Amino acid sequence: MSAITLNGSPHELAGEVTIDELLRRLGRDPAVPGVAVAVGDRVVRRSEWEQTRVRPGDRVEVVTAAQGG
Amino acid sequence: MGQSQQQITDVDPENAAEVEAGSERGTEPRSTVHRPPSTDSDQRGTEPPSTVHRQPSTDSDERGAEPRSTVHRPPSSDADQRGTEPPSTVHRPPSTDSDQWGAEPRSTVHSPQSTDSWSLAGLQLRSRVLLGSSGYPGMQTLLDSIDASGAEVVTVAVRRVDLQAPVDQESLLGALRRRGVHVLPNTAGCYTAREAVLTAQLAREALGTDLVKLEVIGDDETLYPDAVQLLRAAEELIGDRFRVLAYCGDDPVTARKLADLGCDAVMPLAAPIGSGMGILNPYALRIIREMLPDTTLVVDAGIGTASDAARAMELGYDGVLLNTAVAGAKHPATMAAAMARAVEAGRLARSAGRVPRRRFGRASSPAEGRISINPDRP
């Protein structure tokens, strides 16, 4: 298996990558606020994005604020 | 005053709490009277200056386009045009936006109607309207509605980033921050304590706030909360130092349990989310208010129109949270303005100490000095 599940969809990954790097590859600047990331059932703090690696098979959620009541 | 002490046997006991609420008879609560001093309202012929600024009404049927007369600003071109800010109907100084999204921006919104302030989970607020951000015809209508309602707290959901969408779009969060409102994340869409806790944690990380509106849904049709999962989630989140504003059913026992756990606010529904049915069980809401006199209580969900919001405040609630009533109205910003006035009116009425409801009539004009054309009666 070489893919992670990213926001519910399979996403190909060549080996391990940090969360910072993953976001950059998605065209997102990790420094922009308002975003949170969970790997498995655990929230990964922004300060740990540079050190936390994502591996094939991981479930990753990248979330932000959306309209809601 | 010379009022005789009658035994009031025809007073509806259901009314008792509302009758007893309010300040000492004859003394106006300081913060609530907004008019220039003087004109004694007992003085014949003198009209107190009107507090309602009204222009002739011209109704419009176009959803999203506000009828000119009821929102006090020149007509805006396209109400949904992003980036166009019509002059606000709430007079507010420019927002001092902080670049550090982790820091809670200070609210710069001043509700012109009220000097009544309150505290909600550590936030100092003047408006008692909390607004949801969902279901508006466009971003501009949402922003207009925030302005018109005077809301200083706006709820948001936590959802996946659309990784396919272009990055340079104006974000909801950016727009709300620029408005200077407090952004309150919710756990909408969660059915278990586990989901709700993770969502709250993600929200805290993304928005830099400890506040969370906790919702744990137990049924897909009524959207009633699952009390068991809700209590479990509240306990865990409070243990993790969240400030929990808990959306709950109108069950006083669950409401009390939430308060006992340490929720910063308990927020019973008026009616199912989005139903617009107004307060279905005023008895239960009244009981909750009486059982929890020291808890911050907000009516959340099911409000349909302004009178529902006024009623919630007359029941002694500290605020209202509404979304569909405004977002789904034909003219959202107009309804938002109505809500601001209704909440203020309801709160004033509560503080005024209403007359009791009676089963029988009671003449308000004196019997003394009536003329008589009946020879049998002098």
CATH architecture of chain A: Roll
Indicate the radius of gyration of chain A in whole angstroms. Answer: 12 Å
> What's the average pLDDT of chain B?
81
Structural class of chain B: alpha/beta
Number of strands of chain B: 10
Low-confidence stretches of chain A: none
State the CATH architecture of the domain at 118-160 and 173-352 in chain B: Alpha-Beta Barrel
Mean pLDDT reading of chain A: 94
Largest interface by residue count?
A-B, 26 and 39 residues
Walkthrough of the structure:
The complex is a heterodimer of chains A (69) and B (378). With 69 residues, chain A is mainly β. Chain A has one helix spanning 19-25; strands at residues 3-6, 9-12, 17-18, 35-39, 42-44, 53-54, 59-67. In chain A, 10% of the residues lie in helices and 42% in strands. A 5-stranded mixed beta sheet of chain A has the order 2-1-7-4-5, with no helix packed on it. In chain A, strands 3-6 form a two-stranded antiparallel ribbon. Helix content of chain B is 28%, strand content 11%. Residues 1-8, 30-62 and 68-113 of chain B have low confidence and may be disordered. Chain B has a 5-stranded parallel beta sheet. In chain B, strands 6-7-8 form a 3-stranded parallel beta sheet. Chain B has a two-stranded antiparallel ribbon with strand order 1-2. In chain B, strand 4 (153-160), helix 3 (172-179) and strand 5 (182-185) form a beta-alpha-beta unit. Chain B has helices spanning 16-20, 139-149, 172-179, 193-207, 227-239, 252-261, 282-291, 306-314, 324-327, 332-352, and strands at 118-120, 123-125, 129-132, 153-160, 182-185, 211-214, 243-248, 265-268, 298-300, 319-322. With 378 residues, chain B is of the alpha/beta class. Strand 7 (59-67) of chain A pairs antiparallel with strand 4 of chain B.
